[in-house]
Sequence to fold (301 residues):
Amino acid sequence: MAATEAIAFIGIGNMGWPMAERLLRLGHLLVVSDASQERAARFAQEHGCRSATAGDALPLADVIVTMLPTSAVVEEVLCRRSPALRPGALVIEMSSGVPASTRAIAEQLTARGVRLIDAPVSGGVKRAMTGELAIMCGGAPEDVDRATPLLRLLGSSIVRTGAVGSAHAMKALNNLVSAVGFVAGIEALLIGRKFGLDPALMVDVLNASSGMNNSTQKKFKQFVLSSTFDSGFGLDLMAKDISIALDLAQGTKTAAPLSAACRELWSAAAAVLGPGRDHTEMARLSEMLAGVSLAAKGGTA
Fold:
């Protein structure tokens, strides 16, 4: 993918901002768009690029990167509000989407001479800033080939998962595993806390033992024990991804009782804590249920 190709980057949120920033810094031409025109304008002013509405940006783009909250929003932007996409354009759908919806969007775009791959990411804001995201890619081999030079600027791991929609399926399943591991770890810390063990010490032991996972390594001390709860990934988005994974289980007639219980917990946390919460605040629900806090200087909740 040549640096001279015009890129429309749609969705300048917690993840989209550092990703777009990195592409600009590495020489690509970007027009940015966001549901918040003020946010898009601020990004453009800070980085010396142009902001526009999606309707104005998309017809001018050779490549369209979408980093949006749901498949419904992606479809609204690409298929309903913006009919005049440039024939031959490539959409790189980097949101966490519903596989069936992604396939339906791809079919609509193909009929208009536009190609689509799904390329969701994992790794969080810090890895977005350094270009070390894990990227899953679903789509026709030639379309993924076209996108790969750009994706290499954003990620250190790029894995082809199969046809369109397969990467979104993999992303949902990845987040399901992450969510189960997070809750299991938090519950272990709460049990240990009530027994008399120090939570920070427990995290150190887990990270030197077989209980280690991504949450013990990169979330518990950083966002939970510190009470900062600012990882940059929303609780509502995690709950959404778990639901996508459970829908896949239902569609494939796969019994998944642990996953179903996990979805109930995350959905309950989203309902109890309310909108706009970081996903690491899931620990707050577990603390409420246990009646004890994990904060560094915490005591009984």
